[in-house]
């Protein structure tokens, strides 16, 4: 029996259901808080954070799927330092593959219409799998027997089961994805409905399960791109996957609730549970707001200045792993100024040092050598940077530390 797009209805909760829910207010709150965070960040600071957060996003999104490669192991792999265990090495490469897709998405900067197109969703999948070892393309059952192999960017051609959920037959996937993208085109929604529709689409894509494997990560990457394209400019400086992974059981429970068929006459007018979809969208919006709040607090100017100064003190007390050279206390002022503006002119940096020019140049050279400031040329402004040894002081609790 052929599955139609109506099996995915309701596509978003009805206007009647939304009028009696908190979802419109949550969507508005998310939009406002994201805009406020974007407004407090200099453009270069935001770009630095987006690059830094790729590791964090990769860690948490992969953690949801059972890959517990730690951020320090991902950064080691970035340096070419891989685990000697083949399986762990493959997982490090999987984490790097996820980061590569994030970088690709940032370079593509797709609009929301492009994100919701079959070819683009397939390309996200293709980019991910072409950046990870082929050993991870092979699927095995609990006994270790091979049951399938992923073809990058191709819809699945065999049946699958995801827990208690049995996704549509493989023969229906192509037509379903075409209609899925038509249904969730952003032009169909306005105002707060745009964000609510993105959250609903996140579940409905998982329900269709269009690929043999990789659906969770591809779905979250597509949601990342959609949120950015819909106008959440600070997205990338914060990431939804951190909240989803930290509440992994709640995430999977919310997905399962929205999988349920309609529960009687008071549960909407679609094939699937409207109450379940409402709860799923509420969970996603709450999680997103929590992550914006967390990053906004983390990046508060006064608080960050204290943590930067705490890092400098830790350097001078020799409490920073791998760093045995002390820092002049004025380094805190220079680093915080670079954070505020994203970058700092060299002449201004020398002036801020408040010491003889030779000593000031020596300090700036140290900050560059140690990765606390970066440059694009010997004459370019100095940019705020986030080296691994400063992470625990700059961003405590953002991700596990060694």
Commentary on this structure:
The model has no long low-confidence stretch (mean pLDDT 95). The protein has 18 helices and 5 strands. Helix 8 packs antiparallel against helix 9 and helix 9 packs antiparallel against helix 10 (215-229). The protein has 2 domains: 14-138 and 149-298, Fic-like fold, CATH 1.10.3290.10; 301-394, Arc Repressor Mutant, subunit A. Helix content is 58%, strand content 3%. The strands form 2 sheets. The chain has a 3-stranded antiparallel β-sheet with strand order 3-5-4. The protein has a two-stranded antiparallel ribbon with strand order 1-2. Strand 1 (138-140) and strand 2 (146-149) form a beta hairpin. It is globular. With 402 residues, the chain is mostly helical.
Element string (H = helix, E = strand): HHHHHHHEEHHHHHHHHEHHEEH
Spans of at least 5 consecutive residues with low confidence:
none
Overall average pLDDT: 95
The structural class is mainly alpha
Major sheet strand order: 3-5-4
Report the CATH architecture of the largest domain.
Answer: Orthogonal Bundle
Helix content: 55-70%
Number of continuous helical runs:
18
Please give the radius of gyration in angstroms. Answer: 23 Å
In total, how many beta strands?
Answer: 5
The CATH class of the largest domain, by name, is Mainly Alpha
By CATH, the topology of the largest domain is: Fic-like fold
Tell me the distance between the termini. Answer: 53 Å
Beta-sheet strand percentage? under 5%
Q: What characteristic shape results from the CA principal axes?
A: globular
The number of domains: 2
What's the name of the CATH homologous superfamily of the largest domain? Fido-like domain
Largest sheet: 3 strands, antiparallel
């Amino acid at each position: 029996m052929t599955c139609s797009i109506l099996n995915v209805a309701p596509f978003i909760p009805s206007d009647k259901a939304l009028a009696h829910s908190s979802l419109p207010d949550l969507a508005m709150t998310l939009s406002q808080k994201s805009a406020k965070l974007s407004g407090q960040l200099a453009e270069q600071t935001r770009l630095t954070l987006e690059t830094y957060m790729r590791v964090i996003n990769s860690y948490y999104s992969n953690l949801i799927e059972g890959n517990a490669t730690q951020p320090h192991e991902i950064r080691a792999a970035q340096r070419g330092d891989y685990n000697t265990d083949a399986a762990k090495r493959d997982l490090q490469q999987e984490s790097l593959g996820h980061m590569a897709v994030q970088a690709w998405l940032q370079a593509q900067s797709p609009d929301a219409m492009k994100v919701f197109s079959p070819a683009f969703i397939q390309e996200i999948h293709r980019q991910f799998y072409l950046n990870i070892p082929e050993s991870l393309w092979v699927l095995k059952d609990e006994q270790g027997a091979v049951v399938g192999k992923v073809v990058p960017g191709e819809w699945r051609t065999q049946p699958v089961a995801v827990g208690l959920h049995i996704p549509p037959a493989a023969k229906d996937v192509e037509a379903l994805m075409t209609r899925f993208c038509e249904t969730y085109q952003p032009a169909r929604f306005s105002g707060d409905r745009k964000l609510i529709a993105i959250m609903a689409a996140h579940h409905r894509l998982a329900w269709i399960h269009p690929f043999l494997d990789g659906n969770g990560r591809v779905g979250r990457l597509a949601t990342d791109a959609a949120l950015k394209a819909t106008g959440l400019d600070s997205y990338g400086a914060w990431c939804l996957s951190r909240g989803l992974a930290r509440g992994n059981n709640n995430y999977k429970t919310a997905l399962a609730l929205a999988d349920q068929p309609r529960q009687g006459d008071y549960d909407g007018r679609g094939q699937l549970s409207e109450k379940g979809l409402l709860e799923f969208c509420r969970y996603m919006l709450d999680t997103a707001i929590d992550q914006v709040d967390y990053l906004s607090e983390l990046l508060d100017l006064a608080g960050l200045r204290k943590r930067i100064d705490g890092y400098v003190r830790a350097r001078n007390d020799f409490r920073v792993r791998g760093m045995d050279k002390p820092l002049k206390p004025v380094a805190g002022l220079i680093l915080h100024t670079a954070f505020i503006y994203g970058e700092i002119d060299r002449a201004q940096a020398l002036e801020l040092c408040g010491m003889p020019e030779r000593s000031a140049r020596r300090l700036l050279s140290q900050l560059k050598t140690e990765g606390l400031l970066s440059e694009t040329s010997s004459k370019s402004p100095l940019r705020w940077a986030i080296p691994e040894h400063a992470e625990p002081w700059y961003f405590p609790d953002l991700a596990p530390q060694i």
